[in-house]
Write a structure and sequence with these properties.
Elements lengths: L4 E4 L5 E5 L8 H4 L4 H4 L8 H4 L9 E5 L46 H30 L2 E9 L14 E4 L8 H12 L5 E3 L7 H6 L6 E9 L13 H21 L3
Parallel strand pairs: 2-3, 2-4, 4-7, 5-6
Antiparallel strand pairs: 1-3, 5-7
Length: 262
């Protein structure tokens, strides 16, 4: 098993992917980084903890070990832009969301270094992700992928104003059938949380690459505004707030599982 991720075996067709809660930075990379970057401010804080309830669903779960500043697992290995005409944070980011330099000399990661990181950190995660989805297909006849993310409620460089709490992404319906998307979105919209489907966050590389409705392999990304479960100023996990949110997350995921059965 690679040290690039933690993997929890499940006993259901559901796989939870948590690619941006990783916080480790290898020393050979950290030595070149700025203090601002070493604080890893753009981490999807506490997402793996928030989704611990999925153990009760016997879900499989893969959680990244390394920071997205080492490599962004939700980008393609060749680093194509996800959203044309919008700011792209990149496979090996050079700046934080707030525009601060990640590296002390203000440079970008070289092509050779990017290729090294793909082989060392990106490939193992995606090999495990793809391999487990194939196993689920073989066992159950279908596979379900829930890509779990979070982000601060206000990131002016990425979106205007305040982000809704629940941001469902299906690549405009390309990663799962419309009736599956609509059923999950209906649960979200019936909650007390602000919700949007295929808005600013329509799903990154993981959702787009592994969501194949024609193969009975469905993928949904959920980008959470962090105010839904934590204090964004202090970074503190708010247990009561999180417990309330997980009720809605549970209902959404159960609906995803039930309505996706062949």
């Amino acid at each position: 098993m690679s040290d690039c991720f933690e993997f929890h075996d499940g006993d259901s067709p559901l796989l939870i992917s948590v690619p941006h809660d990783g916080r480790e930075i290898p020393p050979d990379i950290a030595q070149w980084m700025t203090p601002a970057a070493l604080a890893i401010p753009d981490t999807d804080w506490h997402v793996a903890r928030l989704y611990e309830f999925c153990n009760e669903l016997k879900a499989n779960m893969i959680v990244a070990t390394y920071s997205r500043y080492v490599i962004d697992l939700n980008r393609s290995s060749t680093d194509e832009a996800l959203y044309k005409g919008q700011v792209s944070t990149g496979l090996c980011p050079a700046k934080t969301f707030s525009g601060a330099d990640i590296y002390r000399d203000g440079s970008a990661v070289s092509d050779a270094e990017r290729m090294r990181r793909v082989a060392a950190y990106w490939q193992p995660y995606h090999e495990q992700l793809e391999g487990r989805l194939q196993q689920l297909q073989e066992r159950f006849g279908y596979a379900l992928l829930w890509d779990a993310h979070s982000i601060p409620s206000h990131v002016p460089s990425l979106f205007p104003g305040e982000l809704p709490i629940l941001n469902i992404g299906t690549n405009n319906g390309g990663s799962c059938p419309a009736h599956v998307r609509d059923a999950v979105a209906a649960i979200a919209m019936s909650s007390t949380y602000s919700t949007v489907t295929d808005g600013r966050f329509r799903g990154g590389f993981i959702t787009r690459n592994y969501g194949s409705p024609e193969k009975n392999q469905y993928a949904i990304q959920l980008e959470l505004a962090q105010r839904g479960y934590m204090d964004e100023d202090s970074g503190r996990y708010e247990g009561r707030r999180a417990a309330q949110l997980t009720k809605t997350l549970l209902a959404m995921i159960l609906t995803f599982m039930e309505i996706s059965k062949p």
